[in-house]
Design brief:
The chain has 2 domains: 48 residues, no CATH class; 83 residues, Irregular (HU Protein, Chain A), CATH 4.10.520. Helices cover 37% and strands 16% of the residues. It has 4 helices and 5 strands, in the order βααβββαβα. It has a 3-stranded antiparallel beta sheet. Strands 1-5 form a two-stranded antiparallel sheet. α1 crosses α2. It is extended. The two termini are 15 Å apart. The N terminus is likely disordered.
Length: 135
């Protein structure tokens, strides 16, 4: 039986948005219109910020981009490096403004349920693949 803590798979009852990611070209076009900057300038600036974040993270330093968030280098037990991202509180506040989210939320009925309730629901619907919770 899989363990909820030990298992790397997520119980698919978590609510999430169902929209596809915004294409880079659409993002660049939107920023260009909002700032009066040429699309090529916007695209180059975004790529330069990305490259600088990579360079600082390669040096073992976290990078805070005001209004966006913090990028922090991490390493796993196999020695694979990755960059974790923690959104700036303003971003989380912005997406949580009441009545402004226009995406589709799948599994909306699970909002507000506890982990124990989600595990019980999973086990009820998947008797052949039970999840057990370990402390």
């Amino acid at each position: 039986m899989p363990s909820a803590r030990a298992s790397s798979r997520a119980i698919p009852f978590k609510s999430r948005s169902l929209h596809l990611p915004l294409r880079a070209s659409a993002r660049v076009r939107a920023v260009s219109r909002a700032t009066s900057l040429v699309e090529g300038t916007v695209d180059q600036a975004v790529k330069e910020v990305r490259d600088q974040i990579i360079e600082f993270c390669r040096a073992g330093r976290a990078v805070k981009v005001d209004g966006l968030g913090t990028f922090t280098p991490t390493i796993d037990l196999e020695g694979y490096f990755a960059i974790s991202f923690r959104a700036d509180p303003a971003m989380n506040a912005g997406i949580n403004l009441q009545g402004t989210f226009s995406g589709t939320i799948i599994n909306r009925e699970n909002i507000g349920k506890t982990s124990d309730e989600l595990v019980a629901k999973w086990n009820e619907e998947h008797a052949d693949d039970l999840v057990t919770v370990t402390d």
